[in-house]
Write a structure and sequence with these properties.
Order of helices and strands: HHHH
Number of strands: 0
Distance between the termini: 66 Å
Strand content: under 5%
Number of helices: 4
Radius of gyration: 22 Å
Shape: elongated
Oligomer: single chain
Low-confidence stretches: 1-7
């Protein structure tokens, strides 16, 4: 049986469900992290799908633990799943980056105009 583009591979799953919407949101985030749909390869699309499914399964396990499931089995599955997800994301090239929280030059200039930073104070970078 050939699969056509746009064909629903899971005909019994409602694409409007919270689960399906979350999967699309996560997928969109991963695709954006890799530079957009036009920049990713077929192999990366496959790995993104796997990473999305791992993420959703981990969300389910996390919900079980939040509801009080303290079994060692659930915790072990969760920890192994996080490791698998981490490796999958690293293989995709998605990595954690520190967010730049330094003030921009426009904000520095505004503070100088408002007198919050003296004009004679030199930046430590220079």
């Amino acid at each position: 049986m050939a699969i056509r583009a746009g064909q629903n591979l899971l005909p019994d799953v409602d694409g409007r469900s919270a689960h399906a919407r979350r999967a699309r949101a996560i997928t969109a985030g991963f695709v954006a992290d890799l530079g957009g749909a036009s920049e990713i390869s077929t192999a990366e699309r496959i790995l993104i799908g796997k990473a999305v499914r791992l993420t959703l399964q981990l969300d389910g396990l996390e919900a079980l633990m939040a509801e009080g499931d303290t079994s060692a089995t659930t915790f072990d599955l969760f920890c192994r799943g996080v490791g698998h997800l981490n490796r999958t994301l690293r293989n995709l090239g998605i990595k954690r980056r520190a967010k730049d929280v330094s003030p921009g030059q426009r904000l520095i200039d505004l503070y100088k105009l408002e007198g919050k930073i003296p004009y004679d104070q030199e930046d430590s970078d220079e």
